[in-house]
């Protein structure tokens, strides 16, 4: 994501609960997951994304993902929402 402008220009849901809900409701087009997030969380969202056919992009750190989402804290995951 270092070459991206970040996720601030698109509609996103940030965090585990919001990302999970977006995937379950069929609203997510892509999910970003921080590689350093809790592996129990990662495995659940990966399985859910595979079930719903949602692409996953891995980001190195929660801090990097938080910055890309224009928030001041780290984020374990974020979903890009269909327009």
Automatic annotation (TrEMBL):
<dbReference type="InterPro" id="IPR004038">
    <property type="entry name" value="Ribosomal_eL8/eL30/eS12/Gad45"/>
</dbReference>
<dbReference type="GO" id="GO:0005840">
    <property type="term" value="C:ribosome"/>
</dbReference>
<protein>
    <submittedName>
        <fullName>Ribosomal protein L7Ae-like protein</fullName>
    </submittedName>
</protein>
<keyword id="KW-0689">Ribosomal protein</keyword>
<dbReference type="InterPro" id="IPR029064">
    <property type="entry name" value="Ribosomal_eL30-like_sf"/>
</dbReference>
<dbReference type="Pfam" id="PF01248">
    <property type="entry name" value="Ribosomal_L7Ae"/>
</dbReference>
<feature type="domain" description="Ribosomal protein eL8/eL30/eS12/Gadd45">
    <location>
        <begin position="11"/>
        <end position="82"/>
    </location>
</feature>
<keyword id="KW-0687">Ribonucleoprotein</keyword>
């Amino acid at each position: 994501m270092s070459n991206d402008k970040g996720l601030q220009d698109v509609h996103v849901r940030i965090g585990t609960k919001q990302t999970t809900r977006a995937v379950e409701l069929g609203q997510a087009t892509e999910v970003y997951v921080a590689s350093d997030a809790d592996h129990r969380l990662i495995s659940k969202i990966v399985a859910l994304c595979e079930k719903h056919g949602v692409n996953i992009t891995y980001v190195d750190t929660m801090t990097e993902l938080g910055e890309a989402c224009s928030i001041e804290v780290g984020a374990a995951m974020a979903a890009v929402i269909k327009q």
